[in-house]
Specification:
This protein is of the alpha/beta class. Helix content is 39%, strand content 14%.
Length: 302
């Protein structure tokens, strides 16, 4: 067991949830992520062994060793793995997704949530999805409308790739029917509001964009994902969902769900009919929602 509270699973179990990556033309297990979790746990355990009274301590003395307590990677791994390995996984997922998107999936290809979750289900963390070629082409053609800093504009000259892959916190994927959920997890942090070359490209827009793109060249089973049956899910503390204007993601997700013109302006290089289907595919749940259906999820909230 990696950690009895924050990650009560073995290294072998966690490794199963890192998708294969293409290394020199061969799909291989990506093991580098595991070290991050092990280092954080080691720092935390060493700090706790000192039996230090944290009350009143300067934050700069306890922030790093106690990072695990607010680390989104641990919150999402704990939460999703407890759901994934639950004996009542389907019921728990159906309950959560009905709350986020309604009683019926927001696409015509599947009629029920049961159909979405039946089959060969995968859970992955730290997935990298390539930037859409259409966006990269559009950005090169409109760079001066998206960036104002001279040295950045100068640096862009001659570069073919002005945006790298987008890191996805977690993904649920059904390899049988292509259904997928792309998850962005937040604890205290907010979304980023720009990329290196695009000062107007916020993190949610970036995730939505890669969500809409087919990835035939990724390793199996990531290449089985069907963009038409892919949803975006934001998970945050309840305090921020109840106070959405305290975070940029609260503004942007609300705007994207209620202002179609905003979405159309955000993705001018995409088909408008595709964009019109987006608002219903955007969901927001809280860590507390997950804890309500499975108390092993984020047990520190109990």
């Amino acid at each position: 067991m990696l950690h009895p509270v924050f990650l009560p699973f073995s290294e072998e179990q966690l490794l199963l949830h890192f998708a294969d990556v293409n290394i020199n033309g061969k799909c291989q297990k990506n093991i580098k992520h595991l070290e991050y979790y092990k280092r954080s746990i080691k720092r935390y355990d060493e700090f706790l062994k000192k039996d230090i009274d944290r009350k009143g301590k300067p934050l700069n003395e306890i922030k790093l060793p106690c990072q695990i307590e607010k680390d989104e990677r641990f919150w999402i791994a704990n939460c999703m793995m407890n759901i994934f390995y639950s004996n009542t996984r389907s019921q728990e997922l159906i309950s959560l997704f009905s709350k986020a998107y309604g009683e019926i999936p927001p696409f015509k290809e599947e009629n029920t949530w049961e159909e979405c979750f039946e089959g060969e289900l995968y859970l992955f963390f730290e997935v990298n999805l390539p930037s859409p070629p259409a966006y990269k082409k559009w950005l090169k053609e409109n760079l001066e409308q998206r960036q104002i800093i001279t040295y950045i504009l100068d640096s862009a000259v001659g570069k073919k790739n002005l945006e790298g892959a987008t890191n996805i916190d977690a993904m649920i994927l059904n390899a049988n029917n292509g259904f997928a959920v792309i998850i962005e997890a937040k604890v205290l942090s907010d979304i980023s509001c720009q990329t290196t070359f695009d000062a107007l490209r916020n993190q949610i827009a970036r995730i939505i964009d890669v969500m809409l793109e087919k990835n035939d060249n990724l390793c199996c089973p990531l290449n089985k994902r069907n963009p038409k049956k892919t949803l975006f899910l934001l998970i945050t503390p309840k305090i921020f969902k109840n106070n959405p204007t305290s975070r940029l993601y609260g503004y942007k997700l609300t705007e994207y769900k209620n202002r179609l013109d905003t979405l159309l302006n955000e993705f001018p290089y995409r088909d408008s009919q595709e964009i019109k289907k987006l608002p219903d595919k955007l969901g927001w749940l809280t860590w507390e929602d997950f804890n309500e259906v499975n108390q092993n999820c984020c047990p520190w909230l109990n």
